[in-house]
Design a protein that fits this description.
Two copies of one chain form a homodimer. With 138 residues, chain A is α+β, with helices and mostly antiparallel strands. The first copy, chain A, has helices at 7-17, 25-32, 41-54, 97-104, 130-135, and strands spanning 58-60, 68-70, 78-81, 87-89, 109-120. Chain A has a single domain (7-119), classed as Winged helix-like DNA-binding domain superfamily/Winged helix DNA-binding domain (Arc Repressor Mutant, subunit A, Orthogonal Bundle), CATH 1.10.10. Chain A contains five helices and five strands. Chain A has a three-stranded mixed beta sheet. Chain A is flat and about 50 Å long. Chain A binds a DNA duplex (30 and 30 nucleotides) through helix 1 and helix 3.
DNA sequence: TAATAAAATAGTAATAGTTACTAATATTTA
DNA sequence: TAAATATTAGTAACTATTACTATTTTATTA
């Protein structure tokens, strides 16, 4: 199956390139519709999957039940905010240390590892004011 | 909302206790039906979710699109086989090292970390026979 | 450039996993 | 035992995703 060029696919990739927030298929869909008003959701899914299979983008699964997509295919970790759901890149070196450790104790072939972090992002972290801090006797 | 005792819930928990292979809701359903022929799938889901919320069991998400459930709530890592889909416990110490490292470079509250490994389990690893090895000139 | 082959599309239907709803039942409390 | 309320079975609804199909686009070739 040889690839054929498609404006829709270009548009999907271009859109992803502009975003650092790992949009879902649905977000891609609503945005790309501004340039292609009758693009179908199926086309978006098909192309996201194709691009991910080609290694041109990355599919990011962070346990929220929805696939996210990332233009940045270099290895890096993600953080997902339990409150707002935002997926954020972490600036932290990726090592194969844990996988290496896992291989020691496992009788099979460990090909890779999936790791992400969760909690509250800086926007969703309650900001305790000085006076409140005082009254809490911190 | 105070809890009330339920035989179905007991049965679900008892079943989970007998298994080390992290069954899905559907597997729980088909098995518990042997003791409760008209238990409904909704009851299974509701109780699995409730038990997980109570911390009596653990919900395991390993990126295969289906939730698995684990009677063992002690912290441990999982391996998922890309071929047969089995979820296997790893006998490997759990440390907070990566999360600690992540906190250094992140401006928010990292509450936890999700890590699992994937590849081929020992059953699915191709076993190369001696003669085949010879002909492959290994 | 026109004809042909093949891939991609829009639109829609179907699927899987899970959650929500409701009337009836079971459990607990008084 | 009666009242209050959690739980259930059964079913409908929902969400994310994939599959299907007739039509359109893109690429190839004559």
């Amino acid at each position: 199956m040889n690839l054929k060029h498609s404006k829709q696919r270009d548009s999907i990739k271009e859109f992803l390139a502009t975003r650092k927030d790992h949009p879902t298929a649905d977000v891609v869909y609503t945005n790309v519709r501004q340039s292609f008003p009758n693009i179908s959701l199926g086309t978006v899914y098909r192309n996201l999957t194709l691009l991910a299979d080609l290694g041109e983008i990355a599919r990011v699964r962070v346990g929220d039940g929805v696939d996210h997509f990332d233009y940045d295919t270099s290895p890096h970790y993600h953080f997902i905010c339990k409150k707002c759901g935002n997926v954020i890149d972490l600036d932290m070196p990726v090592t194969g240390q844990m996988a290496a450790e896992a291989r020691e104790s496992f009788n099979g072939k460990i090909e890779g590892q999936m790791t992400y972090f969760y909690g509250l992002c800086s926007n969703c972290t309650p900001k305790i004011l000085y006076k409140e801090k005082e009254s809490l006797k911190l």
